[in-house]
Each structure stands twice: as structure tokens, then as C-alpha cells.
Specification:
This protein is an alpha/beta fold. It has helices spanning 18-31, 42-48, 81-94, 105-115, 141-162, 177-186, 200-213, 230-241, 261-279, 299-304, 309-320; strands at residues 5-10, 35-39, 51-54, 98-103, 120-125, 165-170, 190-192, 219-224, 246-249, 285-290, 293-298. The protein has two domains: 5-140 and 259-306, Rossmann fold (3-Layer(aba) Sandwich); 142-254, Phosphofructokinase domain (Rossmann fold, 3-Layer(aba) Sandwich), CATH 3.40.50. Helix content is 44%, strand content 18%. The strands form two sheets. Strands 3-2-1-4-5-10-11 form a seven-stranded mixed beta sheet, with helices on both faces. The protein has a four-stranded parallel beta sheet with strand order 7-8-6-9, with helices on both faces.
Amino acid sequence: MSIKRIGVLTSGGDAPGMNACVRAVVRTALYHNIECFGIRRGWQGLITGDIVRLDEKSVAHIINRGGTILYTARSKEFMTEEGQKKAVSTCKFLGLEGIVAIGGDGTFRGALALSKYGINVVGIPGTIDNDISCTNYCIGFDTAANTAIECIDKLRDTMQSHERCSVVEVMGRNAGYLAMYVGLAVGATAVLVPEEPIDFERDVIEKIRQARFNGFTHYMIVVAEGAGSAADIAKQIKETIDLDPRVTVLGHIQRGGTPTGRDRVNATKMGYLAVELLNQGKTNRIVCTKDGGYLDVDIDEALSMKKSIQRMEEDVLAAMTGF
């Protein structure tokens, strides 16, 4: 028996391309004569019944917009059994037969919790950290990386002119994928990530020295926020070799902006597949990319996977070559 009504939500940190994904979910659902409702403010919106009907007009001209028209939030209430039961009650009251959840690990854990009450769920990875272990690629990563690269390229111009050292902090509280990719793309002197213990002398100071021996008079250090504060790292450089670095924290600028073509296409294909899975009666799945193709894996299996630093390096190289 085919489904008749589904909901779609975005949760956790916003990522460029989420709107493109919502658009694809809605348009695919309507193609199959499935009603689609947007759940605003993530899992909290499902608890409170904060929903809106979505149709062709409501998702027109959003494929190029950053952020998410459905808003996003993290819900402590949904982490409790009572909150989850309220969300289930909303699904039953409104007749939502399936939920498409766009976000990261926390979003998928919420979907898994909901599925234990019999709600059909499909997750789509959307996070600029690109740290979802079951997939090579997450929506939003390419745009965030290009934003950081553009900013660092501009910084390099002035650092080179003044023969200075720049320490740039990019996002990545628990994952260094973005920092690694950006560092590779800009030819950074050193890249620091939270997955690897830092030997400051070896990983920073000696690399600056080697760069100087090779004739360079400006240096670019890229650090993921989870690996340490850019200000603290700059202070250590100053104290160790009397070099006076300039600190730049890119912050939330990396989350915004018009999504790249790659993010729009990936988001569209993932959104399409999510609805197809629900329409086929499949549940507890996460849509993934693998070796240039698209597939789905069980949520339990996906959440049990770990992305090692070696795997991240392999994915960086795969990403640089378009899979």
C-alpha cells in the first residue's frame, strides 16, 4: 500500500543545499500524489505540531537559497521519551506516514528513536563537517569549503604582501574533514585537526621553518575549531619563534551563502531517493553517496560506523577528484 502523506524537516546546524533537498522531496512526493508537509524547527516542530503544507509554489525558487526555509533547531525535549511520544502523537494525529529528516548524526539518532514507535523514517546527510561515516559526501560541504577557500585566498594576498603568518580557524568541533580539504586546496603550511594529537614543534613550528628554508616568507596555518583556538596557536607561535601571526576566525560565514552546483545536484538526487524509498515501503534508511553513486543503508548500521582519519584522507582525495 503506497503512502499518502509525509513530512520533511531540517535539524541541527544549517547547511547550504538544504533548501534544494526540501524542494526535491516535495516535488518527488507530489509526482507520486503524496501530500507533503514541512515541519518547522526540526524535531521540536514535530512535538508542537509546527507544520505547513508544501506544494510546487512554496518550493519555487529556493534551489539557490542558503539556509533552510523550514528553520532548524536542536531540541532537548525530543531527547526524552516523553518528547518522542509527543512527536509520535503528532504524526498519528496528522496522518504523517513517513518523515524525511535532513541533518547530521543527531538528526539521525532522532529519526531512529522515532522509528522505534513505528514511524517510517529516511535520513539525508546535511552537514558542512562532512563527518557522517556512511557517506562520502554530505550536503553543504562543498559550499562551506569554497567559502573558506575564497576567504583564505584573500587573506593570502595580504599575508604575502606583508610577509606574515596567518592562523585561520575553520569550523569542525569534532571533525577535521573541512580543515583538511580547505588546507589542501589553499596549499596551507600546516593543518591541525581534532582527530590527531598535536605535536606543536613538529606540526607547526618545524613546518614554518621548512617553508622559510624553501624561500617562503609568508605562512598559512589552518586549524579546525576542535583542534584548538586560533588565538592560542598564534600566541604559541609568537612565544616560540617570535613570529607575529594574524588570527582570522571564519565562524558562521561558512554556513551561509548560495549553494554550489555540486551541493544543489547532490541535494536534489538525495531528496528524490528519500521519497522513492518511502514510497517503496522502506524505512529506517539513510541516503548515501558511494563511489559516485547513490544508495541507502540502515540507520543502526550507519550510526555504528566510524570515520577514521585515514578514511577522511581517502575521502578528501575522492572529493577532490569528484569521487
